[in-house]
């Protein structure tokens, strides 16, 4: 009996979640300036962050972007989400917002690990196949 969630399907679900979360957070930060200001960030940072999130999401969508670049995109988003969590905690936001950001951060990290493992395994298998062909 074949399982429903093959590694490729899990990879696509995780990557889709990551890209959705990044694009949604970029949209929300760009369109809700007052909420962003309440966290203590200046307006220019909100615009800069939204644009960079969009660029990062595009980098994850383009298949020809090197793995090392995609790894750093994931790192940048984890740092961004961790900073958002700290900002929500220290500005006295309600527990519901802090919990929401915490769950998103954990889901993002789990998804990023899933995507990273799949992409690394795919590159390793391609390298092994290429090595066999050259020998």
Can you walk me through this structure?
By secondary structure, the protein is mainly α. The chain has one domain (about 10-130). Helices cover about 85% and strands about 0% of the residues. It contains 5 helices and no strands. It has helices spanning about 5-30, 35-40, 45-60, 65-90, 95-135. Helix 1 runs antiparallel to helix 3, helix 1 (about 5-30) crosses helix 5 (about 95-135) and helix 4 runs antiparallel to helix 5 (about 95-135). The longest helix has about 40 residues, at about 95-135. The chain is elongated and about 55 Å long.
Can you give keywords for this protein?
single chain, 135 residues, mainly alpha, 5 helices, elongated
Uncertain regions spanning at least 5 consecutive residues:
none
Radius of gyration: 18 Å
* Beta-strand segment tally: 0
Shape: elongated
Summarize the helix and strand pattern as letters: HHHHH
Please count the helical segments.
Answer: 5
Concise summary:
The chain is an all-alpha fold. Helix content is 84%, strand content 0%. The protein is elongated.
Write the layout of secondary structure elements.
Blueprint: H1 7-31, H2 33-38, H3 43-61, H4 67-90, H5 95-134
Helix pairs in contact: 1-3, 1-5, 3-4, 4-5
């Amino acid at each position: 009996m074949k399982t429903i969630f093959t590694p490729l399907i899990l990879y696509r679900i995780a990557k889709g979640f990551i890209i959705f979360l990044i694009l949604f957070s970029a949209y929300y930060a760009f369109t809700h300036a007052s909420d962003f200001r309440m966290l203590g960030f200046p307006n220019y940072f909100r615009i800069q962050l939204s644009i960079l999130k969009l660029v990062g999401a595009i980098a994850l969508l383009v298949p020809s972007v090197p793995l090392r670049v995609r790894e750093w995109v994931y790192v940048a988003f984890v740092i961004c989400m961790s900073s958002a969590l700290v900002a929500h905690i220290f500005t006295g936001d309600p527990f519901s917002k802090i919990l929401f950001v915490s769950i998103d951060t954990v889901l993002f990290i789990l998804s990023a690990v899933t995507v990273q493992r799949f992409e690394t395994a795919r590159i390793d298998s391609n390298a092994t196949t290429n090595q066999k062909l050259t020998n």
